[in-house]
Amino acid sequence: MLPKTQFYKPSFFTLHLQFIPSIFHFSTLSQAHETLSGQSLTITKQAFTSLLHSHSSHPNHLKQIHSLLLTTGLSVKNSLITQLLTSLCVLGDMSYARQLFDEMHKPRPFVWNTLIKGYFKNELPNEVASVYRQMHHIDVRPDPFTFPFVVKCCTELSELWVGVAIHAHVLKYGLEFIAMVRTELMVMYVKFGEMGSADYLLESMVEKDLVAWNALISAYAQNGHASRALQLFHQMVVGEIRPDSVTIVSAFSACAHLGCLEIGEEIYGLARKEGIDINVIVDNARLDMYVKCGSIDMARSLFENMHNRNVISWSTMIGGYAMNGESKKALELFSSMQNERVQPNYVTFLGVLSACTHAGLVKEGWYYFNYMVQSNKKDIKPRKEHYACMVDLLGRSGHLNEAYNFIKSMPIEPDLGVWGALLGACTIHHNVALGQHVADSLFELAPDIGSYHVLLSNMYAAAGRWHCVEKVRLKMKKKGAKKVVAYSSVEFNGQIHVLYSGDRLHPQATRIYKKLEQLFKHMKSMGYSPKTSSVLHDVDMEEKEATLNSHSEKLAIAFGLLNVRPELPIRVIKNLRICDDCHTFSKLASEITMREIIMRDKNRFHHFKDGFCSCNDFW
To answer: Partners of 570 in the beta sheet?
Structure first.
């Protein structure tokens, strides 16, 4: 008969006895259990701790150890149960861990924290919230180790008001100046777009430790606020706080997002000075920066000279070739990767499929996609991004019906990326009937995203169906869907200059428009005619041309011609897809001025040189 303990529940704690070595010199845990049940041996707390450390690699082993605790009466010791619970959380058996927790007598805050951390690590944010509510309800006082994971959980749940409430609790318990708590609050506010709150928390810190700087710079870089990330990096360096590899990686990431090659090179110089440049993680971040700045030759040189290369290095280089219009080199590099027996992952195949998409290689795309489907390796099974890539490949190549049927046969629910790729293809190939149907599916999923309404409107405009354009406009207004403001940016003298479509407020606006006027005059003498077919029909031809002529990418190119040194390429980052007219303009501008123009739009890079584009007019 088992000793009466507070813990024992036969219906829950079913013993799972398996043969494993025992530190008690028994051949099995089962034999140990039988001997202990006969009370022929006294087992100490230390012995159970050693047993737990030796056999914590499988949930069933832990359940056997729990049965021994029950048998010997040691289950009344919360310290041993806490060790067991911690091991179960690490292995992801949260159901058993929770029932262990529920049977404990007045668990200490450390145990509550262990359960909260376990739920978070196992991607169960709702359970984190539930445990914290229970903790708060019975007046268990949280400590500094409680809040970091509770705050992280708020961003996972996308509930700002919950995060604000947790912040109030932090203030209530006087923990607002604990660095790790304050850091997580800052990161949370950045992820919710509450920059003022994040900045206030940083500025009001008594001592800014390196960890807080790193967390905030990373959060800004990864959540669409790259400029602010670089500002903080500069502020940190000026404040004589030495960066580490984490700081440098986040700074490179921000440069990659903004296309800031000059700033990125300055950061690399600092990394070398600090002796943190020889590091595969730093090298990979620098490689990604070169790729996303359109410096594909510099990227390949770095790749070839890396002391260590891993799957991330190969995937970044393959994806870089793909987005820069070097599809053949991307596929050749993938072949080299296989020859060197480096195992690809799903990111590698995304780069491979992108290479096929940007070159219209339908046959090759199907080959690689089917290889993924038929593989027994979980890490390369197709995800939504791969399905979207295949739809894009088929659609851009003119196989619209095949793309639509492919979507219908998908084993997973198509998302915005999948339907959006097909709508874009319908716009390119002027298939209004299918485009309308696809748009309906998109509007059901995301009625308030303006970019899809704009795509549909452009398709109608190109077909001359202006009454349909007007209907789309009214629908956007009714649903509150906002059109994304178009802008382009150019790096010059370590600063990012942003120009918006129709921009007249830039300090160099007069010079920019004068330069454009000169270019247009020269282009028209070469036979250039603005493509006004998709510009709104309710304005005259002169106004249509003026609208086209002030697109942000044209303004950015003119700014670059006025300011960037002649021997350097003009690097333009566009937040949307480049339009047909601006694409033609950019090719002619590169020919007239004999300058290389590297433009990154929403989908890919365009390298304009001598009147040609690297995309071969297929984008």
So the answer is: 597
For 564-575, the DSSP string reads S-TTSPEEEEES
Report the distance separating Cα 336 and Cα 370, nearest Å. 20
In the structure, what pLDDT confidence band is assigned to residue 607 with cuts at 50, 70 and 90? very high
Q: What is the pLDDT of residues 280-293, one digit of tens each?
A: 999 999 999 999 99
* Helix (H/G/I), strand (E/B), else coil: 540: coil
CA-to-CA distance for 478 and 34, rounded, in angstroms? 74
**pLDDT for res 48:** 63
| Residue 183 bridge partners (DSSP) | none
> Cα separation of 58 and 63, whole Å?
9
For the record, the structure tokens of 551 come out as 């697109």
- Alpha-carbon distances of 50 from 28, 47, 333, rounded to whole Å: 15, 5, 50
Q: Which residue has the higher pLDDT, 136 or 394?
A: 394
598 forms bridges with which residues in the sheet?
A: 571, 607
Kindly report, residue by residue over 441-459, the tens digit of the pLDDT. 998 888 888 888 888 888 8
CA distance 579 to 581: 6
Q: Any idea which fold 208-309 has?
A: 1.25.40
Grouping H, G, I as helix, E, B as strand and the rest as coil, residue 496 is: strand
- The ranges of the chain annotated as CATH 1.25.40 are 208-309
